[in-house]
Amino acid sequence: MIPTSYYVLLATAVFCIGVFGVLTRRNALMFLVSVELMLNGANINLVAFSQLHGNLTGQTFGLFTLALAAAEVAVGLGIIMVLARNFEDVDVTEAVTMRW
Amino acid sequence: MVAADFAAAIPLLPFVSFLIAMLGGYFAPRLLPKGGAIPGILALGGSLLLSLWVLADVAGGTYTNEELYAWVVGQDTFSLHFGMLLDPLSALMLVIVSLVAFLVFVHSLGYMNDEGETGLPRYYAGLSLFSFSMLAFVLADNLLMSFVFFELVGLCSWLLIGFWFREDAPASAAKKAFLVTRFGDYFFLVGVVGVLVTFGTANFAGAEAFPTLAEEAIDAGESFAGFGAQTWVTVLGLLVLGGVIGKSAQFPLHTWLPDAMEGPTPVSALIHAATMVAAGVYLVARMYGFYALSPTALSIIALVGGFTALFAATMGLVKREIKQVLAYSTVSQYGYIMLGLGAGGYVAGVFHLTTHAFFKALLFLGAGSVIIAMHHNENMWDMGGLREKMPVTYYTFLAGSLALAGIVPFAGFWSKDEVLYEALVHGLGGSPILLVAYAFGLVAVFFTGFYTFRMVLLTFHGEPRTETAEDPHPVRWNVKFPLVVLGILATVAGLINMVPVQELTGLRVEFLHEWLAVGVEGVTAEHYGTLLHDAAGYTAAELGSLVPALVSLGIALAGAGLAWMLYAGPDPQEHTARLGAIQRLLVHNYYQDEYQVWLATGVTLPLSRVADKFDQGVVDGVVNGVSSASLFSGRRVRRVQSGLVTNYALLLTLSLVALLLFLGLYGGWL
After folding, report:
1. Where are the domains of chain A?
2. Which residues on A lie below 8 Å from B643 (Cβ)?
3. Which among A92, A98, A99 has CB closest to B646?
4. Hey, is the C-beta of B649 within 8 angstroms of any chain A C-beta?
C-alpha cells in the first residue's frame, strides 16, 4: 500500500506546476491547461483521502470536479475566442485595456 | 354674526387687490381701471368697514384670540402657527392702518394717475401688498407671525421706495432702507428664536403666552442659560428691540428714513409716517407685558426714544426740502412714542402713535399736494405765498402742523404732553434715568415748534419766490378729500384722551385709558400697570398733569414764536446759515451716513477680508489638503492595477503564501 503522504506530495507537485504555468505563460490556452493541472492536483487529494478514510464522498467530489473542469474549459474557450477576436491574439499581456 | 369671523378678510382684501393689480397689469393693462387704483380703493374701503365693525365688536366686549392655521405642527414640542388677536389695541391699529391706507390710495389718484406716471399697476400692487402685510402684522397673535409680516412690510418698502428705479437715487435709497432695517431685523429673528426656545411659545396672549410665562418664571426665580430669569427677559427684549429700532428709525438705525423720501410722496405718507414705521413701536406695545418685566429694557427704550426725539429734531431745523423736514420730524415723533412706552406710559405711547398716524399722514399728503402744485420741486426756498392759491391744502396742513408742534387743542398736544408727563412722574417717582429722557424730550419740543413753523411759513407765507410758486398747478378733489378727512382727525383725535382737562374739570374724558384698560387677559393696560409697579419698580410721583402740560405748551409756543419772528416776513432770509459750523454739522446729519459708510468700508470690509483669507486659506486649505493627499496616494496606488492577469495571479499566490507563512509562524503550525 502506498502511503497517503506520497499522494499528497504528488498532488502538491501537480498543483504547483499548474500555478507555475499560470504565472509564467503568456498564451491563454496554456492558462487553461495549467488550470486543468491545478484542478487535477486537487482531485488526487480528494481521491487519496477518500481511500484513506474508506468512504466514497471524496471520489464523488472528484467526479464533480471533472464535470466542473469540463464546464470551465467550455467557458474559458469561449472567453479565449472573444479575446482572439478583439485582440487578434491569445497573448494575455496584450489584453490590458481594462485598467485605469 | 360677529366681526371676528370676517376679520381675516381685513388683510386678505388688499391681498386680492394686489393680485388683481399685478396679474391685471401684466396680462391686461388696458382692462385695469386707473392702473389698479380702483380695486385697491375698494379693497381698502372694505377693510376699513370691517375694521370699524371689529372696533365696534371689541367695544362691546368681544375679544378674539385664536389660532387659524398651524403650518408646522410639532411633535412633543412647540408648533408654529398663524392666528389673530383682536383686542382694543389691535382693533384701534386696524382702523388707523386701513383708514390711512384708504386715503393714501385716493390721494395716489391725484399724485400718480393725474401726473401721468407710468408703471401704475406695479405701484398699486406694491401699495396693496404693503397694506396686506401691515394689517396681517397688526392682527398677529404670535411673535413669529409678526416677524414674517414685519419682513414683508420691509420688502414692500423696498419695492415702493425704489419705484422710480431707473434713477440712481431712489434705487440706492431703497437698498439702504432694506439693508439698514434688515440689520435690526437680524437681532429680532434671534430674539424670536430665543423666545420660542425659552418659553416654547410665541403667543402674545392667552393661557400659554410668553409674557405670562416670563412673569411666572421671574416669580419662581427660575434661570435660563445660566442667567437669572429677569436678565434673560432683558436680553430677549433687547434682541427684539433691535428690529424695532431698525423699523421705527430710532438712533442709530434712523439713517434710512430720510433717504426713503426718494419714493413717491403717498408712499412716504403710508409707509414712512403712518404705518410701517409704526410697526416697530406697535410691536413694543403688543408685547408690553414682556418689556414691563425688565426695568433695564424699559430705560433703554426710553433713553433711545428721548435721544432720538431731540437728535432728529435738531437735524430737521436746517433742511431745505419739505419732505426732509417731515422725515426728520417722523423720526423725532417716533422717538417720543418710544419714550412714552419706555417711561411706563403704555397708553400715552399708543395715544401718540394714534394721533401721529393721523397728523403725519396729513402732513405728507399735504406736502404731496404742494409738490404737485410746485411741479415736483421740493425745495421750500422756491415756494412761498401758496396760502392764497391753495387754501384747502394750507388750512389742513396748518392743522397738521399745529398738531405736530403740540399746540392746544390739536391732537399732538394731548398725546405728546401725556408722553412727557409719564416720563416726568415716573422719573420723579424713583427712576431718575427717565428724567434724562424727559429732558431730551422737553428740549425737542422747542425744536419741533421751530422747524414745523419754519416749514409752514416758508411754504405758504410770504411772497412767491419763483414763477412756479406764483402760478401753482391746481390739485383736484382726490388730493383734497384725504386732506380734509385727516385734517379733521388731526384736529379732534386728541379729544379721545384729555388727561389735563379731566383733572381740571373732573369730567370723564380719558376714553383711551378706559379703552385700553380692558381686553384679553394679560394684555391690558391695567395688567401692565401692575407689572410696571411690581416687576419694573416704576412708581408714579404725585404730580398734577396741568403744570407739565403748560410747560411743554409754553416751550412749543416759544419755538413756534421764534420761527414766526424769523420767517414771517414777506421775504425771509436763511437765518440758520448764521449758525456756522453747527449748521454744517446739521445739514450733514451729524455725519451719520459718513460714519456708517466708514463702519462698512473701513471696519467691516477689512474684517471680512481677514475672514475671507481665513476661510480660503485655513478652512479650504485643510479640505483641499485632504483631497490632494488622497489624489496623490491614489495616483501611486493605482499602478498595482496593471491590467495583466498574470500579475494579479502572482499577487494572489504571493499573498496566500505570505498568509500561510504568517499563520504558520504565529499560529503555531510550524
Report:
1. 4-87
2. 95-99
3. A92
4. yes
- CA–CA gap between residue B202 and residue B145 (Å, rounded): 9
What does the pLDDT look like over B317-353, one tens digit per residue? 888 888 888 889 999 999 999 999 988 888 889 999 9
Residue appearing with cell numbers 416776513: B569
- Which amino acid, one-letter code, is at B265? T
Helix, coil or strand: residue B483: helix
| Contact state of B643 with A23 under an 8 Å Cβ cutoff | no
DSSP-assigned beta bridge partners for residue B454 = none
> Alpha helices of B538-591 — where are they, by DSSP H?
546-567, 581-587
List own/partner pairs for A64-69 with CB under 8 A and 24 or more apart: A65/A39, A68/A39, A69/A36, A69/A39, A69/A40
- Using CA atoms, how far apart are residues B180 and B29, in angstroms rounded to an integer? 35
pLDDT of residue B625: 94
Does the beta-carbon distance from A96 to B643 stay under 8 Å?
A: yes
pLDDT in tens, B205-233: 887 888 888 888 888 877 777 788 888 88
**Which residue of chain B has the CA closest to A27?**
B646
B77 touches chain A (CB under 8 A): no
Q: What is the pTM of this model?
A: 0.79
For residue B538, CA distances in Å to B179, B303, B342, B343 come to 36, 15, 11, 9
B390: helix, strand or coil: coil
CA distances from B280 to A44, B174, B284 (A): 95, 19, 7
Q: Which residues of chain A fall short of a pLDDT of 50?
A: none
Predicted complex ipTM: 0.85
CB–CB of B586/B314 below 8 Å? Answer: yes
Please report which helix (H) or strand (E) contains residue B67, including its range: strand B64-72
Place of cell 500579475: B647
Cell reading at A83: 479575446
Cα–Cα distances in angstroms (integers) from residue A62 to residues A3, A38, A44, A47, B463, in the given order:
20, 13, 8, 7, 126
CA distance A11 to B131: 96
- CB spacing of A22 vs B646 below 8 angstroms: yes
Q: Do A22 and B641 touch (CB under 8 A)?
A: no
User: Mind giving me the DSSP string for B407-465?
Assistant: -TTSHHHHHHHHHHHHHHHHHHTT-THHHHHHHHHHHHHHHHHHHHHHHHHHHHSS---
3-state secondary structure B198-233: HHCCCECCCCCCHHHHHHHHHHHCCEECCEEHHHHH
* A-chain residues near B642 (CB < 8 A): 96, 99
The alpha carbon of B328 is separated from its chain's Cα centroid by a whole number of angstroms, namely 14
- Lowest-confidence segment of B137-151, B404-418, B428-442, B585-599 by average pLDDT: B585-599
Question: In angstroms, rounded to a whole number, what is the distance separating the alpha carbons of residues B320 and B431?
Answer: 39
Query: When comparing pLDDT for B312 and B535, which is higher?
Result: B312
Tell me the average pLDDT across B378-398. Answer: 84
Exposed/middle/buried for B321, CB within 10 Å: 0-12, 13-18, 19+?
middle
B400-458 residue pLDDT tens? 999 988 887 888 888 888 888 888 888 888 778 888 888 998 899 999 998 898 888 88
B373 and B472 in contact (C-beta within 8 Å)? yes
Residue owning grid cell 409738490: B371
**Grid cell digits, residue B67:** 389660532
Rounded CA-CA distance A36/A50 in Å is 21
* pLDDT for residue B432: 82
> What CATH number should be reported for the domain whose range is A4-87?
1.10.287.3510
B78/chain A closest Cα distance in angstroms: 55
CA dihedral sign, ordered B406, B412, B418, B420: negative
CB-nearest partner of A23 from B638, B642, B653 = B653
> In sequence order, which ranges of B60-142 are alpha helices (DSSP H)?
88-108, 120-139
